[in-house]
Design a protein that fits this description.
This protein is mainly alpha-helical. It has three domains: 65 residues, Winged helix-like DNA-binding domain superfamily/Winged helix DNA-binding domain (Arc Repressor Mutant, subunit A, Orthogonal Bundle), CATH 1.10.10.10; 70 residues, Orthogonal Bundle (Arc Repressor Mutant, subunit A); 66 residues, Arc Repressor Mutant, subunit A (Orthogonal Bundle), CATH 1.10.10.10. Helix content is 46%, strand content 7%. The protein contains eleven helices and six strands. Strands 1-2 form a two-stranded antiparallel ribbon. It has a two-stranded antiparallel ribbon with strand order 3-4. A hairpin with a 6-residue loop joins strand 1 and strand 2. It starts with a helix and ends with a helix.
Length: 251
């Protein structure tokens, strides 16, 4: 079973209450046995759900839980986040037809889960101050063009991320033989999920532009070095190596 199918099953269980708010999921090992896959497949299936705030990793042995906004964050704190975002929209910090920081970034800023951020933003969505596109993010609505999102969110596409990495390899930002940032670092930088990073890297690896490194990392392809000359080496027309007799010396 693929990570995508496992993720679909988990989403269904979250929706129908099998895994209710505040409950703990079975361990990844238990889920791996259930689905008949290695543990890493389950980890990959759950990661986008954690990134989106649908699940919360408790760390250590406490495993993965379904967030419960009402129990994890007091309602006054949720209202405070709403008020802060509302004021930023009002004073232009979040200007009309611009994207808000991702749920993940806002969660880090306010020290809460992404699910709590989603709850805080819900009234702003209901008032048509904010709107969201599932694969792109949340933006500030332009009252004059309420259905028109910002047009500068190409960074959410696999093609954009792949092209950006390709350019970095070409212009030396990732010099030959250097280690690329880890996938989670790239996901944070581009504000996308790990699946998008993996898909963007796949063709670069197939073309040999990057190679596998230690610890599931990737490195830029080592630069090509031509073999050293053997036998009758010739000098350049203008200058020769030290020790070579020039025509003037010979005279």
């Amino acid at each position: 079973m693929t990570p995508e199918l496992i993720r679909k099953v988990i989403r269904i269980r979250l929706a129908d209450g099998t895994y209710g708010p505040g409950t703990q999921l079975p361990s990844e090992r238990t889920l791996a046995v259930e689905f008949g896959v290695p543990k890493w497949v389950v980890s990959r299936a759950l990661q986008p759900l954690r990134d989106n705030g649908d699940l919360h990793s408790s760390g250590g042995r406490r495993g993965t839980r379904v967030p419960d906004p009402q129990s994890l964050v007091p309602l006054p704190a949720i209202k405070k986040i709403e008020q802060i975002v509302r004021s930023r929209i009002g004073d232009g910090t979040y200007a009309v037809r611009t994207w808000l920081p991702s749920l993940r970034h806002l969660a880090v800023e306010f020290g809460v889960t992404a699910t709590s951020i989603r709850t805080a933003l819900k009234p702003l969505h209901q008032e048509k101050l904010l709107a969201s596109l599932r694969t792109l993010g949340t933006y500030v609505v332009d009252p004059g063009q309420p259905g028109v999102p910002p047009s500068d969110r190409a960074s959410k596409t696999v093609a954009y991320v792949g092209q950006a990495l390709r350019e970095r390899l070409g212009d030396g930002i990732y010099p030959p033989g250097s280690r690329l940032p880890a996938n989670p670092e790239l996901a944070t930088e581009f504000d996308v999920g790990l699946t998008t990073i993996s898909k963007a890297i796949r063709p670069l690896r197939a073309e040999g532009l990057i190679v596998n490194g230690p610890g599931r990392s990737y490195s830029a392809r080592p630069s090509y070095k031509p073999p050293a000359p053997v036998g009758n080496a010739t000098c350049e027309p203008v200058s020769c190596d030290a020790g070579t007799i020039s025509e003037q010396d010979h005279q």
